[in-house]
């Protein structure tokens, strides 16, 4: 997904020199922001998966979010199997705190949704976030996702269970921008 200008948000495959940034999301609570720190995790999991498949597999993947040469974080997707004959994607995003509030997340999620609709036969892409993460809810809505509802006590973070909000975008609905 080539950039038009240095400030254009693009998605690209993960390179080996991106791995330290990805590992930082597993080892540095400050890099995660207020809604993504779930405690210490295996700092080498991205490196192992990258060596195995470049973080691109049939059941999901990760792409770097960039503007020009600046790396902001990543988008990810995973297959949710609903029945023997159907599945959809669940997407997510992780940006460095300095990259938040600039429209980068909205654009990256829109680009990922367009990519998945263009290259896979799914009819549904969903995303979820904590109920208190108002900025991410706005970003999803700006990207064309619709709020499906509240998922009560869906995620355990920082010593307590928290509600989430589920969003979806269906094939044929117009993503934003």
From TrEMBL:
This is GNAT family protein. Residues 9-172 form the N-acetyltransferase domain. Keywords: Transferase. Pfam families: Acetyltransf_3. Its EC number is 2.-.-.-. GO terms for molecular function: transferase activity. InterPro entries: Acyl_CoA_acyltransferase, GNAT_dom.
């Amino acid at each position: 997904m080539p950039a038009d200008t240095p400030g254009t948000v693009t998605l690209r495959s993960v390179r080996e020199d991106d791995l330290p940034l990805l590992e930082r999301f597993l080892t540095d609570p400050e890099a995660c922001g207020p809604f993504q720190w779930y405690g210490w995790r295996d700092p080498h999991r991205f490196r192992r998966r990258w060596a195995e498949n470049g973080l691109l597999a049939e059941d999901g993947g990760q792409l770097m979010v960039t503007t020009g040469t600046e790396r902001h974080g990543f988008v990810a997707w995973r297959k949710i199997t609903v029945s023997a004959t159907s599945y959809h994607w669940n997407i997510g995003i992780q940006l460095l705190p300095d990259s938040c509030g600039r429209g980068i997340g909205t654009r990256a999620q829109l680009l990922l949704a367009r990519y998945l609709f263009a290259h896979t036969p799914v009819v549904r892409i969903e995303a979820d976030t904590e109920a208190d993460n108002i900025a991410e809810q706005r970003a999803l809505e700006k990207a064309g996702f619709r709020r499906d509802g509240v998922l009560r006590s869906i995620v355990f973070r920082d010593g307590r269970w928290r509600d989430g909000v589920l969003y979806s975008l269906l094939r044929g609905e117009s993503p934003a921008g």
